[in-house]
Specification:
alpha+beta; two-stranded antiparallel sheet; single chain
Length: about 160
């Protein structure tokens, strides 16, 4: 898409981390997000920008949030903000993050939308979902309930 069709070029989630070094170690060194840039300023101000592949903004209504919690965890747990990372091997990556200090909320389980999802409480106060896609988006779009209302207007 050209810039005129999609004026937003990047989604950047900014998270304040009380234990900055631990958060950088966990997300960069353990999860494996490559460091794009790091800056220091006056008064010990520091920021590290990590690349996370393709970014999307997932908007869910309260009923969908409850459904996701039920499928991934079995009970309500999600704060208003949860960060989800697509990984190639959800089971191995979940184990690696728990070994590095994350708290397991729910072990990897297959979801109705054909992904393998786990839930963790991670550094910087983030609740994290790791997900491994078990079908391509194209395959999933042929299943009942996986359509989109994009472009449809009730004028």
């Amino acid at each position: 898409m050209t810039t005129a069709e999609n004026p937003v070029l990047q989604l950047r989630l900014v998270v304040e981390a009380d234990d900055y070094e631990e958060a950088v170690r966990f997300y960069r060194d353990v999860l494996g997000l490559p460091e794009q840039a790091a800056f220091e300023g006056e008064g010990d101000a520091r920021v590290t920008i990590l690349e996370a592949g393709r970014a999307t903004l997932e908007l869910a209504n309260p009923a969908q949030r409850r459904l996701i919690d039920d499928v991934e965890v079995g009970h309500p747990t999600t704060p208003r903000l949860r960060v989800a990372f697509e990984v190639a091997d959800a089971e191995a990556r979940t184990t690696r993050l728990v070994d590095a200090g994350a708290t397991l909320v729910a072990s990897p389980r297959e979801t109705p939308w054909r992904s393998l999802n786990s839930r963790l409480d991670a550094p910087a106060g983030l609740q994290v979902t790791l997900f491994e896609e078990l079908m391509t988006l194209e395959e999933r779009q042929t299943l009942e309930g996986f359509g989109t209302d994009a472009g449809r207007h009730d004028d």
